Amino acid sequence: MEALRRTPLYDAHVAAGARLVPFAGWEMPVQYEGVIPEHKAVRTDAGVFDVSHMGEIEVEGPMARDLLQQLLSNDITKLDVGEAHYTLLTNEEGGIIDDLIAYRTGEHRYLLVVNASNRDADYAWIKEREITGSDVRDVSDDFALLAVQGPDALRKIGIAPGTPFTWEMGTVGGIEVMVNRTGYTGEEGVELACPSEDAPALWDAIVAAGVTPCGLGARDTLRLEVCYPLHGNDIGPGRDAISSGLGWVCALDTDFTGVERLRAVKDAGPEQKLVAFTMTENAIPRGGMAIEGGGEVTSGTLSPMLEVGIGLGYVPAAVAAVGNVLTIDVRGRAKQAAVVKKPIYAREG
Amino acid sequence: MAAAESYPDDLLYNEEHDWARIEGDEALLGITWHAADALGELVHYEPPAVGATISKDESYGEIESVKAVSDLISPLSGEVLEVNDIVVGTPETVNLDPYGNGWLVRIRLSDPSEKDVLLDLADYRKVLDEQ
């Protein structure tokens, strides 16, 4: 087995008492104090996550925009320099090779932040399709990425509020960083990119500002409460983007890989849909559990904020409406759930 | 806050990190500090039914954290006399007090001689050291 990779913050995690686990080929902190307190810190105060394992692919050149318009589902021609959007790398069947954030970093330059587990596959896919006038580079090892999230996150690290899905250069703890107004928690916050060698000092400055170190465990429960899909669980290459509930990031009037298939699914209506649900009985759903009538749970946990079992799963379109009762096979016990509106958790008021 | 690491010397253990406190022909069963710590803060306990028969080395219920599910492997065979409703209502009790208020079931032993093959504290510490 190949040795696990470590981020520039490995020593900081060990010093902070993290429990480290293998994740997508990396040795990553799953928790420090505990998933639940870390989750609540992000919902009520501020938390920081090391997400340096994520991949970064740079596409540059006069034809960079044209290349990405052919490969990504969202309309990249709408991005100005300083803007970003959520988009999908699709295959010929309209399945999702990866979901990612595309940043326009220059007139002819884009940065794609991709899932760690898909970094190599994404790079290979895009590199193979490179066209004259576009240069595709895997720059993942150059960058560290820290997500700072929560209602008090920006104030604590001295960043002024800004428009979601934009980026600018800024300074945190005296370190120059790319400030990305993005996140995976549903809270206000930023993702800070910096050169790998600056990461330990940046982490120390953020923690010293009173931001709680958070692991991948809380990252997963936070994203699930707000129904952000996780690639490899809720979405993947074997399921089209429309059925996956991501039609809103598919510009079907543009010409990208798999668009014809997606137009056909949209016209006919998907056979299955990805729905959010909460348990109405005392049980915790988990990925892989069967939903009666031909469905399957793709993610499940106990919501730390709502203190009930919650999940995402595919069900036949006929039973996907909000309020429908689902019966889930919880290791041999039939437990009931109800389809709910996304997001499952939203702050009151 | 979770309890500090400890393993009482008046309990018997199995290699799956379950403990038994035998009192006459009855026993209380629970999970050790190590098991609770490995799972993290517990959020769900799926107990057996009162009156059910449980068997040594087989699952008699489940306990879950946010991230994971673990089978409860009984160290002894018997009939379930009582389920700890405190843990059903507040599973975190196990993290706070794994050998006291965090017990899981009380059983009537069907074969008291089974205790002879369980681990005493010295043997259980060897299991922990190997992990």
Automatic annotation (TrEMBL), chain A:
A UniProt-annotated Pfam family: GCV_T_C
Main EC class the enzyme belongs to: transferase
Domain named GCVT N-terminal: residues: 9-253
Keyword presence, Magnesium: no
GO cellular component, one term: glycine cleavage complex
GO MF annotation terms: aminomethyltransferase activity; transaminase activity
Stored HAMAP family: GcvT
NCBIfam families: gcvT, PRK00389.1
Family: Belongs to the GcvT family.
Full protein name: aminomethyltransferase
From TrEMBL, chain B:
Family annotation (CDD domains): GCS_H
GO cellular component: cytosol; glycine cleavage complex
Boundaries of every Lipoyl-binding domain copy: 26-108
Keywords, in A-Z order: Lipoyl
GO term, biological process aspect, one: protein lipoylation
SUPFAM superfamilies: Single hybrid motif (SSF51230)
Cited Gene3D superfamilies: 2.40.50.100
Family in the record: Belongs to the GcvH family.
PANTHER family: GLYCINE CLEAVAGE SYSTEM H PROTEIN, GLYCINE CLEAVAGE SYSTEM H PROTEIN-RELATED
Annotated protein name in UniProt: Unannotated protein
Protein species of origin: freshwater metagenome
